[in-house]
Amino acid sequence: MRSTLTSQLLRVGRAAxxxxxxxxxxAVALAVAAGLLASALxxxxxxxxxxxxxxxxxxxxxxxxxxxxxxxxPVALWGYTYDTVxxxxxxxxxxAPLVNEAPLPPGLAKWPGPGEVMLSPAxxxxxxxxxxxxxxxxxxxxxxxxxxxxxGERVAYVHPADSHLNDPRLFKIVGYGNPAGSGIGEHxxxxxxxxxxxxxxxxLVVPALVLVAIAARLGATGRDRRTALLEALGGGAxxxxxxxxxxxxxPAALGTAVGLLPWxxxxxxxxxxxxxxxxxxxxxxxxxxxELIAAALxxxxxxxxxxxxxxxxxxxxxxxxAGQSVLPRPNSQKLPTLKVVLCAAFLLLxxxxxxxxxxxxxxxxxxxxxxxxxxxxATLPAVISLATAALGNVLADFGRRKGHASALxxxxxxxxxxxVTARLVAxxxxxxxxxxxxxxxxxxxxxxxxxxxATVNRxxxxxxxxxxxxxxxxxxxxxxxxxxxIHTLALTAPDSDGNTVLKAPCATLDQLRLACLGTDVITRAxxxxxxxxxxxxxxxxGRIAVxxxxxxxxxxxxxxLLVLLSESRADLPVNAVxxxxxxxxxxxxxxxxxxxxWYVGAKERAETVNWAVLLGIIGLLTLGIAAALNNAAxxxxxxxxxxxxxxxxxxxxxxxxxAAWTIGLPLLLATGIGLFANYFLSAxxxxxxxxASISAPGVVAMGTIGMLLALVSWGAGASQAVRQAGRxxxxxx
Length: 733
Known about the structure:
By secondary structure, the protein is an alpha+beta fold.
């Protein structure tokens, strides 16, 4: 009997959904919400799978050193360094077999010979324009997918020439498969997993949950009347829940399936994500297919739970001196005072909590900050609805005293419907918060990075520095191998006072208009911009003495850098210089322009920002969908509710006034309060230690978008009300 009643109630819910006024709109909203939430939750599981795959493949190819296994037979020499392509780092692994049957590293089908190289497909593609095929040696093959941490990893295996087999970077290994991993590979260059998951939660999951809440309450007026009828007929919470589930289960299930579909496709083929260039590893996703399906089911459960839990019940009121009444209470909503208090608490946590509670822990600093930001954005719509309700009371009182119908109707509407207002502004205010967070985090860059970018913009690659080996013969071989038109100098390491010495033959110094007598001093104010930048980056004191001496002459154990200057002041042929350096100097020559390590750091930072931009765009689109669906439903509700005013007033102007107060004003308030909150939420990230900044053009853009949305929504609501008024007839509701 109970199962029969359950199925009947579910069928009643499906029928009620089809017959409701906003049934199609709510079904679309529930499907979209379920799909986006399913996809967002799948992204968190997929991120864990990708990072776990990196760790596993890194461990599989990491060497077991002879020092850790002194009794085992050494089978190969192994070493590593980093280089750059497109100003981004890639890994260079040096290998050389010591025995005939030496095991191959994962991903290699054969041993490359001396001076030969194997490149990953991504590195070969990215470095084609920079001449990567001739930089490290002769390319003789590709690295297979089992030897890469991800399909898009940039890595090279190099068999050094015999002349480099005594390089200090090489050490003996006994095999591969080191669980501790190594300090090289893609996993050392990417954002930590917990930070990515925080970003996925804030930029994907939270907007999806906002959409779920809006979809669950869409068209609530009709369901509230249905609830009152069920209560009058004696229906309890279980009956209401079953009817709500029957109404929402089909669109939610369809949306969940659609949200899972992109991940099912990603299991079949590798594809490149836009903006980031990251190649999604299909093989790794296939290994967690059960987790992805579980994430989709979790999303479905969350949506259905929201439909049931966010359904407002009308409590029965007791009449004085009588039994319980089945009359529903007036159509008003409780003011969200608790959420306002929570909003203030979250705002305080975001702005002061990190400094007070986690000043020395970057991990907990970010955790506390992001918790405060998410909490503030989630509860901020309640603050706006409370402010709107307060204005509504003032406006209604003004309209009653002055006899203004539009002010009276608008004021009553605003004061009695805070939940409607909260849903109306939620998408906009959270969108402003997310846009502000993306902008602030993308602006984080240190002063040396800024200085390095300025140096590259001023002098480009007209100056290069390299590590100078101790053997003069290698330096001579290198200078003979590089193209013509390049000055070669040597810069000594700073002394105890931070001063350095620039050495070169007199002929070179003369061409650079430097004295050979040892009396010249190069400072940051030198007229030759290249030498001024060299003093800035090459000497802590900003002063470089000049000495006429052979470049290859290394006295004692003094370390020095080789400095290359273009005779024509044009950019130097970086790839040719790197090729000569790898061949003649060392396995890690460290070729780069002035400040290049900081410049590469800025580029790596920009790559991370691309992820934030991509996720931010998806989050903003989600919130845009939420705002569009909610506003569409609100326009329908507003137009039906105000249509009878035509009969009472005989004027259509009242619709424009009521729409301005009940739709336009809350959105304008949301824009202003959202920008105000964004300013305070961004403050902890603008301290010098973190180095972020607030973009004035970004603030103007967000304010402009908010005002345009308010104007468009006001016009749409008013015009819809006018059209409904022309078709209005009395109904028995």
